[in-house]
Design brief:
The complex is a heterodimer. Chain A is built from ten helices and no strands. By secondary structure, chain A is mostly helical. The chains are: A mainly alpha, B mainly alpha.
């Protein structure tokens, strides 16, 4: 007589054997005392393991857990869509700013080449600082000349790029902030979301 | 006032109500601690891992399916936290404490039976602690969390036949340990 393996006897006790195989094991156990004894031994082992009493927790975990978490930001579905729309607009603005910078690349190259081959005079920095205070209209008018020529004055070039970098930075900060808000915001799954 | 359901508390936590999550921790801290204790075998480490499990669960609360019970989910998170810790730690550093005074709700009276019960419990704990972490994990999920082979396979990233083999070897190890201790 072929006996049943220990693994199959355990799977039988776990109710994990397919129906047909379980039937065969059951029939075998009716006629094989050796396998029936092993089955009872496993049943005893399972009972010993499962009868392990619960240990009492000796300290309250609540204060430690609550000090280790940050409250989630609650935002409704409408707000969520608004933030997603803001993310989309922000990303589009960022790309626009980047393409704008790309158009002025010749001026940047000219400026970098000059900087690398000569020391920067204090007067240049004064000009740079002044350029940052130049009204945006001047910067925008300089933008036309930037695209047309690589020999625009440094102050004008920086005026345009200064604004572009400022706007791009603003957009990046906005996108990052919204991303953080959306990541931390609670969003329950399942039908209970509707009843929430 | 009726007691809030686990689902209501989860929704509260997702709305930013930290105290709602605190109530969930209060409800499940003992069972989560016991999962950690069975896997880690040491009281202080088990408390630390239980706390980690609740913090990690909170960060992933959006992934909890409100149509399912919270208890099995948090115990599963605790199992994974402990397994990650055991896989990183030196397997030799997992002592089992003699903590006879710690059992919950011990029955009063019949001191001999109580002593036997405690000895048996200590032997089972020692046998569990002697197993490698991945065998301890399948025993935990099968016998204490009542998961099917398919669910264990999914939780631990194993195949069904690996689960069956792991369980068989883990139980053989337990039986051998208990036998050597004179209990089976």
């Amino acid at each position: 007589m072929k006996h049943i393996s220990d693994a199959d006897l355990q799977a039988f006790l776990d109710r994990e054997l397919p129906v047909e195989a379980a039937g065969l094991v059951s029939d075998h156990l009716q006629v094989c005392q050796a396998c029936a004894t092993r089955l009872e031994s496993f049943r005893g082992l399972f009972a010993s393991v499962e009868s392990l009493p619960e240990m009492a927790l000796q300290k309250d975990l609540v204060p430690g857990v609550l000090s280790g978490i940050e409250p989630k930001i609650a935002i409704g579905p409408r707000m969520r869509w608004l933030l997603l729309a803001e993310l989309a607009v922000g990303t589009a603005s960022l790309f626009t700013a980047l393409s704008w910078l790309k158009l002025s690349t010749p001026a940047w190259i000219a400026w970098l080449t000059t900087s690398l081959h000569s020391s920067v005079e204090p007067a240049d920095w004064v000009g740079w600082l002044t350029s940052l205070e130049t009204p945006v209209e001047n910067g925008l008018s300089a933008f036309g000349s930037l695209t047309a020529s690589a020999t625009v004055p440094l102050a004008a070039a920086l005026s345009v790029t200064g604004w572009a970098v400022f706007l791009a930075g603003l957009v990046i900060v906005g996108v990052a902030a919204n991303g953080v808000i959306l990541t931390r915001a609670g969003s329950p799954r399942g039908k209970d979301r509707r009843s929430a | 006032m009726p007691e809030l359901t686990d689902q209501a508390l989860v929704l509260g936590a997702l709305r930013g109500e930290v105290q709602a999550y605190g109530e969930l921790v209060r409800r499940y801290q003992t069972s989560v601690y016991n999962v950690c204790y069975r896997l880690m075998g040491e009281r202080q480490t088990a408390e630390d891992r239980a706390q980690d499990a609740f913090v990690r669960a909170y960060r992933r609360l959006e992934t909890f399916d409100l149509e399912r019970p919270f208890g099995p989910w948090i115990r599963r998170v605790a199992t994974n936290v402990c397994l990650n810790h055991l896989n990183r730690a030196d397997p030799a550093t997992a002592p089992l404490e003699e903590e006879f005074g710690e059992y919950a709700a011990a029955s009063l009276g019949e001191p001999e039976k109580e002593l036997q019960r405690r000895e048996m419990a200590e032997s089972v704990r020692a046998a569990l602690d002697s197993l490698p972490p991945h065998y301890r994990a399948v025993i935990e999920l099968r016998h204490y969390q009542d998961l099917s082979y398919a669910e264990i396979a999914s939780a631990l990233g194993l195949t069904m036949s690996e689960v069956k083999t792991h369980l068989y070897r883990a139980r053989k190890g337990l039986a051998d340990q208990l036998r050597s201790g004179g209990l089976r």
